[in-house]
Fold each of these.
Amino acid sequence: MNTKILFCILGVSSVGLLLQASDVDISKLPPPSTKTGVKYETDIKPLFEKSCVKCHGTEKQKAKLRLDSLEATLKGGENGPDVIIKNSAKSPLVHAVARLGDEDDFMPPKGKGEPWSKEDVGLLRAWIDQGAK
Ligand code: HEC
């Protein structure tokens, strides 16, 4: 086989693997809540306080992520922003609480707290889609 063709095949299959690694079936996400005026302070922070800040707050900052202020939440962690403003379906934060994609990224981690309800995931989605204010 011609080496150019061989490298081309290798290239295409490695791109395929990379895509697969971050593959999330967004059709499985619960729909965004229809609530309007969703705000970090009143709607989202209480959810984070209940199930996230013990690992992402003042005491511990797992993956260098803090969720105890709006600013820190938008900044993201060691892998960059976890909130894609106005695009909740693409936001890693939403995938994590909806328990979609890689099991290692589910939040709270398995056995470390109650999984979020569809309603709470929907509220997080509405917040992001409305501009994450
Ligand atoms: C028991 C501790 C613990 C709790 C509770 C927890 N996390 Fe995490 N979180 C981790 C650890 C550990 C990592 C790093 C995982 C890894 O590197 O594979 C992480 C990573 C993350 C990341 C990826 C950050 C990045 O940029 O790499 C996000 C997003 C996240 N957590 C969100 C949440 C949310 C939202 C909650 C609450 C629903 C939560 N976590 C609750 C321990 C926790």
Amino acid sequence: MAFVWAVQAQAAEVTWQKDIKPIFDKNCLGCHGKDSPEHGEFQKDKKGFTEKGIGMRMDSYIHLISYVGWPYTGALIRRLDDGTSKADKKPGNMYEHLGVTDEERKANLTTFKAWVGSWNVKRWSDITKEELNAIKAKY
Ligand code: HEC
């Protein structure tokens, strides 16, 4: 019953808890975990933290969505994109961390895209209310 299966697959909503957290914990947590600085703290010494391979904290739902909606609108999208959604067509610099193989990176990007719901690289200054409304990013 392929039809029934397709309907069920569509109904299975992508959530942070079920789908994103496992990917994040495996591929991102090492540099964006609970001991990493808050975004504002990171900003005080960007160069220093980056040189040490320490990113900003993103390990909770609330932390991560601040890189999707506000205040760091589209940051997650710009960094994880494989290049297809960016004007310069270059992959974001966190794309490589999405997996060990190209296949894994592509699969995990697909999951992130499904979670965000509206894969938009725009910043707060350019994004429209309608575009923000299209973001899903469910807990
Ligand atoms: C080896 C360490 C490392 C790993 C692994 C890593 N990151 Fe990062 N990430 C950094 C560092 C350091 C920065 C800050 C320097 C920069 O902007 O490139 C950063 C920056 C970012 C930013 C930009 C935030 C902003 O304020 O603009 C996002 C979004 C991000 N990472 C997401 C991720 C995601 C999602 C993963 C997992 C798929 C990941 N990173 C894996 C080290 C890492």
Amino acid sequence: MADFVSSFWNGYVMVLVALSLAFCLLILVTNMGKGAKKGAKPELHGHVWDETLTEYNNPLPQWWMYLFWITVIFSIVYLVVYPGFGNVKGVSGWSSAGQYEAEMAKADEKYSPIFKKYAAMELNAVAADPEAKAMGQRLFLTYCAQCHGADMRGAKGFPNLTDSDWLYGGEAETIKATILGGRQGVMPSFGPALGGDGVEDVANYVRSLSGLAHDSLRAQRGKETFEQNCVACHGADATGMTAIGAPNLTDKVWLYGSSKETIMETINGGRNNKMPSFEAFLGNDKVHLLAAYVYGVSTPAK
Ligand code: HEC
Ligand code: HEC
């Protein structure tokens, strides 16, 4: 209820709840002792439905009436004890958020010494520890798998974290910086500047860099375009630049795909890709464990 900015809705909910309860009570009270008297023969009601359907004026069964009373009384007791009646908190002081926080605090108390222990260790040492690895994997499955996949191999636009190819760098400390601060990869759109033909030329050149089938005349022209427009970020040798997350275009690893169509789509429209920052959400200690885990998986111990 605290989510409502004005008190109007609290009042609205209170009135609705009070009216519903009053209505139930009214029905109960007015129906007590209605219907045929004990011992008397039940009589037919006057009305008929569906041509032949009629009804006796038998009283409602006692057990049903009691059950109805019990539910009404239960709901009143519930609303006194627990939150539910508008913004009234209830005498027990219980709230779902409070319960969640209490459980989290308990879990933190239990686990934070373990996280602290690893946070004090070098990332390389943590990466080699089997218990830390198991914890890191659980954290990864909870917080990272939805984007990078349970097997860490990523998907289109989401980098594979198990290989040795890195947008931002695969050193343990760099991986930690990526997770703590997040990253934003921005490839500008070149469609307007290069035109359809220009884009196709440079796409052919990009494909030639990793030995994929290409039109050599177009690639020749594309090489010039590349030198004028792309080397600032992807480097003179097209092997990328980790400072801004510009991918290596000479290896066989693709963030978006190697088909000519996909490469043209990237150059034409640009890309804007975001790895969220986890510093505020998970805190340094958990990120430390995660970074060690990712580092350990991608860089097997020598
Ligand atoms: C909402 C989706 C999303 C989630 C959740 C997510 N990531 Fe990412 N991550 C990305 C994207 C997208 C990129 C690539 C950013 C770019 O292209 O610049 C990325 C990049 C990275 C990189 C850099 C890879 C490289 O090649 O340099 C690392 C490391 C990483 N993520 C680890 C993690 C970890 C660990 C978690 C869990 C705490 C996580 N990510 C959660 C989307 C996500
Ligand atoms: C301002 C820096 C910058 C410039 C200039 C730039 N790029 Fe990029 N490029 C990037 C970044 C950063 C990414 C990664 C985008 C992401 O993380 O989603 C990228 C991604 C790509 C990809 C996708 C690679 C893959 O693995 O799927 C291709 C292809 C590409 N660029 C080609 C080019 C070409 C061709 C040019 C010149 C016409 C160019 N880029 C100019 C920064 C740049």
